[in-house]
Specification:
With 486 residues, this protein is mainly alpha-helical. It has helices at 4-27, 32-37, 44-55, 58-70, 77-103, 108-116, 119-151, 158-208, 211-221, 237-250, 255-262, 268-282, 285-297, 309-317, 320-358, 367-391, 396-407, 411-419, 425-444, 459-477; strands spanning 450-452, 455-457. A two-stranded antiparallel sheet has the order 1-2. A hairpin with a 2-residue loop joins strand 1 (450-452) and strand 2. The longest helix has 51 residues, at 158-208.
């Protein structure tokens, strides 16, 4: 059977990483602090790997190569947003870490509640966070199914792969929490870095004799493909600049990054990561090179799904067992982020929405009860995410950009809440509601990118600018001062 070796390798990757993730929970009985935030003692490199594990996901394997293959020049925004985001993280993550340690915060909702001394605002932010985490979780599952289906040459169906892998992910997160995610992130990131580096360099040389020769061929065929707007009509320079702003601001606004930051043992850990994570980001050029290679290889036989450019090229170039290894690495790139997303989403629902919203607050509920509630919400979320992934799959990068536009609206209320003494609760609420309304309105009405005076802007950027203006104006007009302790 031609695909048996690939299926065996995929099985080893998926089952092996699930067992590794379950070990911390099987070896030690975890209290709520250990399960949710890893006892807040993750060192520099352990925290580096868990942060990298959530940044470099299925998008790195599939989205980057797919965009390079399908859109050309606009894909270069991928190389820019991380550099800007890490500069933002260098200043805001250490402060988030200090707040988490000082006040035993667990979730992003806890942080917002503390900053504005407002439990309703913390609950509101948690509800919005859950709404945008679900598409991100769906992204990982959809990608996982596609990767395994292609890598197994159809031997394992997309739905079967999602069911098996995600049940295993839910099991080890249920048992081990954040320590399970951390213990598996190391393997996932090493596998991803090696795969991206090797194939990104080898494939252009294999087919064209080098990267320069590959770009020369693309330019000869289509001189405008490698510049904005590439093969599109609207993804111009204005779109690229505004998208860079949105993704840099929204990068660390995903709720799971707040919980991961609370796991660091001191503020120097996230500061260290902001300096060294760009090394990983440089490797994103590699899947883009694979996508450009695929453009030329399949120029007379276009691929049915752009996001599969990486896997199709490997499948048509190497023996089946190599495809199994790439597919296994890609599966890990989906499973580990999905594990952290499951954990963070369950904590937001159980701690901020269920306990603080319906049970009167965590002071009325034991830490053990909170942990058990979060565990059982993992099972509910698993079912919801599987349903969305099976019946509502969409283009991967569009899902991610939609999520970014939504969570980016948290940026003014969190950053101003930490650094601007005049920020007010009313300003935070008004700015957030305006920003989120515009995100939904523009997205639902197909107004992304948003045209303005002949230039196209990312819809999330338009919403963020309005969010900032409303936040600042209302805060300056509001005499309410912060009531929390600084």
């Amino acid at each position: 059977m031609e695909n048996s070796s690939a299926i065996i390798i995929l099985f080893i990757f998926i089952v092996g990483i699930s067992i590794l993730g379950a070990i911390p929970g099987m070896k030690h009985k975890m209290n709520s602090e250990s399960w949710a935030v890893g006892d807040r003692n993750f060192g520099r490199w352990l925290n580096w790997f868990i942060m990298a594990g959530e940044v470099y996901t299925a998008f790195a394997f599939l989205g980057a190569s797919g965009w390079a293959y399908a859109k050309g020049g606009p894909s270069f925004y991928i190389l820019g947003y991380g550099s800007l985001a890490y500069m933002v993280g260098y200043y805001i993550l250490p402060k988030i870490c200090v707040y988490g340690h000082s006040h035993l915060l667990v979730t992003q909702g806890d942080l917002v509640e503390y900053l504005y001394n407002s439990r309703p605002l913390g609950i509101l932010v948690s509800c919005i966070g859950v709404a945008f985490l679900l598409p991100y979780l769906q992204l990982q599952l959809t990608a996982l199914g596609l990767i395994v289906e292609v890598a197994s040459l159809g031997g394992i169906s997309r739905i079967t792969a999602m069911l098996i892998a995600f049940v295993m992910v839910a099991a080890f997160v249920f048992l081990s929490g954040l320590k399970g995610v951390a213990s598996t992130a190391l393997i996932k990131d090493i596998a991803m870095m090696l795969a991206m580096l090797f194939f990104g360099i080898y494939l252009p040389f294999h087919y064209f004799g080098g990267v320069g020769e590959m770009f020369a061929k693309i330019e000869a065929i289509n001189p405008t493909y490698l510049i904005f707007p590439g093969s599109t009509n609207v993804l111009d320079v204005g779109w690229a600049m505004s998208t860079l702003c949105v993704m840099a601001a929204g990068f660390y606004m995903w709720p799971h990054f707040t919980t991961n930051t609370f796991s660091a043992k001191d503020p120097d850990v996230p500061r260290h990561n902001a300096v060294w994570l760009p090394v990983y980001h440089l490797l994103l050029i590699c899947p883009m090179l694979v996508g450009f290679t695929a453009l030329l290889v399949y120029i007379n036989n276009p691929l049915p799904v752009a996001d599969m450019a990486f896997l199709y090229l490997v499948k048509d170039t190497f023996p089946v067992w190599v495809l199994g290894i790439v597919g296994g690495a890609g599966a890990l790139a989906c499973m580990i982020p999905a594990a952290d997303l499951l954990l963070s989403t369950s904590l937001l629902i159980s701690r901020n929405i269920y306990i603080k919203g319906f049970r009167g607050g965590d002071e009325n509920v034991s830490p053990e009860h909170m942990k058990q509630a979060a565990r059982y919400f993992i099972l509910v979320l698993t079912a919801i995410a599987l349903y969305l992934s099976i019946f509502h799959a969409n283009l991967l990068v569009n899902l991610l950009l939609t999520g970014y536009s939504g969570v980016t609206q948290f940026f003014p209320l969190i950053v101003f809440g930490m650094f601007w003494p005049k920020s007010s609760k009313l300003g935070a609420i008004c700015g957030l509601l305006v920003g989120e309304f515009l995100v939904f309105y523009l997205m639902l009405n197909k107004m992304d990118p948003f045209p303005l005076m002949g230039i196209h802007f990312n819809a999330g950027f338009v919403a963020l600018v309005c969010n900032f203006i409303v936040f600042i104006a209302v805060s300056l007009l509001t005499k309410e001062g912060k009531t929390r302790l600084q």
